[in-house]
Specification:
Blueprint (H helix, E strand, L loop, with lengths): L3 E5 L4 H12 L3 E6 L10 E4 L5 H7 L7 E4 L8 H19 L7 E5 L3 H4 L28 H16 L2 E7 L2 E2 L9 H15 L3 E2 L4 H5 L1 E2 L2 E2 H12 L7 E5 L5 E2 H12 L3 E2 L8 H4 L4 H11 L12 H8 L10 H6 L7 H14 L6
Parallel strand pairs: 1-2, 1-4, 2-3, 4-5, 5-6, 6-11, 7-10, 8-13
Antiparallel strand pairs: 9-12
InterPro entries: NAD(P)-bd_dom_sf, PRISE-like_Rossmann-fold
Protein name: NAD-dependent dehydratase
């Protein structure tokens, strides 16, 4: 098979790891972003703004991708704006690629907000689904930019004749700097600050999340899942959940994360303690830590996203994701969640983003 990939959002947590996976599998791989990623060997950078159709036409004029992977989005002030902007970005991209008719498959990465609701109504009463979450569950009767992105893919597929796949990871665990949704790195930064200041590593979320079952998605599993669905005929034109393949309880994992850093773990004490408030005054502390240990990034805001971690850990229900559909079709990759976090922490230390 002739496999020429265009990864949209190649500088992000999912896109950068997907690029490494596809290149390792022998794909010719282009990475499109506003600020191209030049740190991945053999990734061919493409600079373009998805909101500027003319820029896209010029940037993509000499590229004929067979497979397109959309891993990016833009957060706006309201869900109505999220829908307008993110739907437009997908439409502009697929319109720009339409004339060549080279595209055989388009993969779109969304997430569990498909089931739990958008930012404005995330995991609120009236929008709480049954778990484990399954792909056949209907859309919520509420505006959601994930639905708008999907609809743009479906419309372009009908027009141009390519196949598609939708990928719904849970919380993605992996390395990325400047990512808007980065729970693993956020917890590593929080733990590092606790260690340096002597503060307790206190659980920030809800009782339901502390005691209930949960799962996450290692970005390496997600990358393999994207490549699998794009090249497996019987996986075409379907939506898939994608997680590590095991369940855990945060009250079990929290102690282990604290142990990695050699700090005291404090569990749920009857009150939610949002990380956004807990870390609100930590920018100057982090600059001091970075200077003292010779770290390469002293800007806390480029590493941590406490607002997103609060969304995940503050949910009023346990959240587990069913993987039966992928398993029955042949995707059998499994990942230990504890090792997902520890591998990430080891990488952050090796890259001097957190201290030893």
């Amino acid at each position: 098979m002739n496999k020429n990939a265009l990864i949209v959002g190649a500088s992000g947590i999912t896109g950068s790891n997907l690029a490494e996976e596809l290149i390792a599998q022998g794909w010719s791989t282009y990475g499109l972003s506003r600020n191209p990623n030049n740190n991945i060997k053999d990734l061919q950078p493409v600079q373009a703004d998805l909101l500027r159709p003319e820029d896209l036409k010029v940037a993509l004029a000499d590229i004929a991708p067979t497979h397109v992977f959309i891993t990016t989005w833009m957060r706006m002030e309201t869900e109505a704006e999220n829908i307008r902007v993110n739907g437009t970005m997908v439409r502009n991209l697929l319109d720009a690629l339409s004339p060549t008719k080279s595209v055989q498959h388009v993969a779109l990465v969304t997430g569990l907000k498909h089931y739990l609701g958008p930012f404005e109504a995330y995991a609120k009463e009236g929008f709480l689904p049954e778990t484990p979450l399954r792909e056949e569950q209907p859309r919520l009767e509420i505006e959601n930019f994930y639905y708008a992105q999907e609809d743009e893919v479906y419309a372009a597929a009908d027009r141009d004749g390519f196949t598609w796949s939708i990928h719904r990871p849970h919380t993605v665990i992996g390395k990325a700097v400047g990512n808007l949704m980065n729970l693993g790195t956020t917890l590593a930064i929080y733990a590092s600050i606790c260690k340096e200041t002597g503060r307790p590593f206190r659980w920030p979320g809800s009782e339901a999340q502390w005691n209930g079952l949960s799962d996450v998605t290692d970005v390496r599993v997600l990358a393999k899942h994207l490549a699998w669905a794009a090249t497996t005929e019987h996986a075409s034109n379907q939506a898939f959940n994608v997680v590590n393949g095991e369940y855990f309880r945060w009250k079990w994992l929290w102690e282990r994360l604290a142990g990695y850093f050699g700090i005291e773990a404090v569990g749920f004490d009857g009150t939610i303690h949002p990380l956004e408030a807990e870390m609100a005054q930590d920018a100057s502390i982090w600059r001091e830590i970075a200077e003292r240990h010779g770290l390469v990034e002293s800007d806390l805001n480029k590493l941590a996203s406490p607002w997103h971690t609060d969304l995940d850990l503050g949910r009023p229900i346990e959240v587990m994701t069913d993987m039966t559909k992928s398993r029955k079709l042949g995707f059998t990759v499994y990942q230990s969640t504890e090792e997902s976090f520890f591998d990430l922490f080891d990488q952050l230390r090796a890259d001097r983003l957190i201290s030893m």
